[in-house]
Fold this sequence. Notes:
Layout: E1 21-22, H1 26-44, H2 50-60, E2 88-95, E3 108-117, E4 122-127, E5 133-134, E6 139-140, H3 144-147, H4 151-162, E7 168-173, H5 174-177, H6 180-184, E8 187-191, E9 195-197, E10 200-202, E11 205-209, H7 212-220, H8 228-247, H9 253-266, E12 267-269, H10 273-282, E13 290-294, E14 298-300, E15 307-309, H11 312-325
Parallel strand pairs: 2-7, 4-13
Antiparallel strand pairs: 1-13, 2-3, 3-4, 5-6, 7-12, 8-11, 9-10, 14-15
Amino acid sequence: MAEEHNSGRRSRRDTYGEQPTKKRRSFLGCLGWIILLLVLIGGGIAAFSYYKLHSTAEAIYQPADANGATPVDKVRETEVSISDKEPVSILLLGMDAGAGRTTGEQNTDVMILVTIDPESGTAKMVSIPRDTYIASLDAKINSAYGTAGGASGSINAVQELLNVPIDYYALVNMTGMMNIIDAVGGVTVNNEFAFSQDGYDFAQGSINLATGEEALAYVRMRYEDPNGDFGRAARQRQVLIAILDKYQNVENVGSLLGLFETVQSNVTTDLTIDDMTKLALNYRVDSANIESTTLVGTGDTSTGTYYNILSDDQIAETSSMLRSHLGLE
Length: 329
């Protein structure tokens, strides 16, 4: 490989073996709350102040290896330039940080690596199941956040697994972010099968999730789902997309205020306001040009713990696909 792992990374403040399938709108769902900010940059400024947008972006900004955290391994020889419209990668992390969990207990239940090539107008999205075995930790990859240094630990684990550089990250507290549904007055989704969860009954077909609490119950269910965690991840994306649909033509300033406050309380990223603006303007991808893959390996319970074991060929194929998309091979 042309790039080798080296320690250190410069701060940017100075400047679910499944074949790939097309997900017509998954990209928006996966970028989730960062996309909400981008939507506001593109259309919300006329209805709301730039100051509030800027202050929110500053509040959620945090380098992955800030505050003495484990350094992020350097996989690129030179840092990517969004200004020059170079292909970029973003690691999207979703966490349930509620229920009084300590930092060491905070696992990333959602882990999606997105690569975007603005020149070809394409994006690739790889979902890494939370039970995926990672050799360096001798544990599930979702534990990297709590045991290996926070966001930098998750980044290093994914970089090691796939030998792909991660240029940016965005971490979302899924529990807190569901509060935004209260502000928008609920969302409508299409439920594939009927089930019950946390005292709520969800019928098959088009249903309305009236509150954040109800939406959280909807996305949390996995034991009745034939696809387990993969089905839960799909519902998480589904709800995020439904929220985004409500904000495409948002006009209520009070609702915008609630959005900013919720983002500020539940998102952390090393994307600056300048980075987000350039991504919004120059890295747009048509939904038909998004390729989505979930790294479903072989289930292994020989140790008494369930692991998703990926084959060497599966890892190599995914790595080659992503590196090529980033212009590294």
